[in-house]
């Protein structure tokens, strides 16, 4: 039974972040270290960028500029008010990207202190990928949620925002209002759970692959390449999830800004393409 | 014994990944069809495509999260 509870001898996974130490009332967990590390890297890159910005970018400067320009290009095409949320979307993308990729660095999740829980020895890593902690992803999702609700209220007013929740045929309000309310709140859940699930599953996946192949290492030294393949995949997924979080935030804000159509945008867009393609093919 | 039942439940929870799997396949095939019809539209297709895949994939991720919780933090 003990080897089942630990999920296999070599593999120890904890769904919540492990506390490292406490500063007063604040308990510092290892995912907080990861998040602070990601912020520090971003601040350092900003400092590098601001130290000597050149009109013709050098190698480092264009490396920093490229993702920002790319995201800006996508955001600028959405609505006329893109300047209001460009910084948020870009910031979310860069923060999640760096936080995800930190989790893939060697030493993250493997270097730590050993604690004794009863007879079991448990490794508490110093750094944990920030996205593998629901607190981090939920915090980002709450920021994004507050912003797109705020945009909806700012553009349509409180009454307009509530009317959007009530929906089009007014007499359906008792049925549709709770549904719209839940769908609004489910964005919060889906944004946070998607990022958490992806990053956490990635950590577990790589850990499982390492634990599986370490046993075969003495027979087949090539076994190290199996986790390496999944590391490459996680590199891709980390970038895709960062992009998805940023783009979904952008889409929700865009939907909040679009007056009238608001909540009905989705249904129209889903039914329309058929007629569009039919019109295009004739 | 409880651990074994939690493991069984974790496996059963992943049955829910069938739906998103089918959905992802449909989404991908439609995107490829669109690309085949109009290769120049790859830039315009990319962002809605990624968003759609992310929304579909989220359902599968819910199953995965439930399953992982059942494995690594089984309810007593």
Description:
The complex is a heterodimer of chains A (about 280) and B (about 80). By secondary structure, chain A is mostly helical. Helices cover about 65% and strands about 5% of the residues of chain A. Chain A has helices at about 1-5, 30-50, 60-75, 85-100, 135-165, 175-215, 225-255, 265-280, and strands at about 20-25, 25-30, 110-115, 120-125. In chain A, the strands form 2 sheets. A two-stranded antiparallel ribbon of chain A has the order 1-2. In chain A, strands 3-4 form a two-stranded antiparallel ribbon. In chain A, α5 packs parallel to α7 (about 225-255). The relative contact order of chain A is 0.12. The model of chain A is unreliable at about 1-10 and about 260-280 (pLDDT under 50). Chain B has about 80 residues and is an all-alpha fold. The model of chain B has no long low-confidence stretch (mean pLDDT about 85). Chain B has 3 helices and no strands. In chain B, α1 packs antiparallel against α3. The interface between A and B is medium-sized, with 25 and 19 residues.
Please give a quick description of this structure.
The complex is a heterodimer of chains A (282) and B (76). In chain A, 67% of the residues lie in helices and 7% in strands. Chain A has eight helices and four strands, in the order H-E-E-H-H-H-E-E-H-H-H-H.
Cα-atom radius of gyration of chain A? 23 Å
Oligomer type: heterodimer
The biggest beta sheet of chain B, please?
Answer: none
Order of helices and strands of chain A: HEEHHHEEHHHH
Q: Roughly how much helix do the residues of chain B carry, as a percent range?
A: over 70%
Specify the biggest β-sheet of chain A: 2 strands, antiparallel
H/E topology pattern of chain B: HHH
Number of helices of chain B: 3
Strand share of the residues of chain B? under 5%
Helix/strand-derived class of chain A? mainly alpha
Q: For the terminal residues of chain B, how far apart are their CA atoms? A: 12 Å
C-alpha termini separation of chain A:
66 Å
**Average pLDDT of chain A:** 80
The 3D shape of chain A can be described as globular
Mean pLDDT of chain B: 86
Q: What is the number of strand segments of chain A?
A: 4
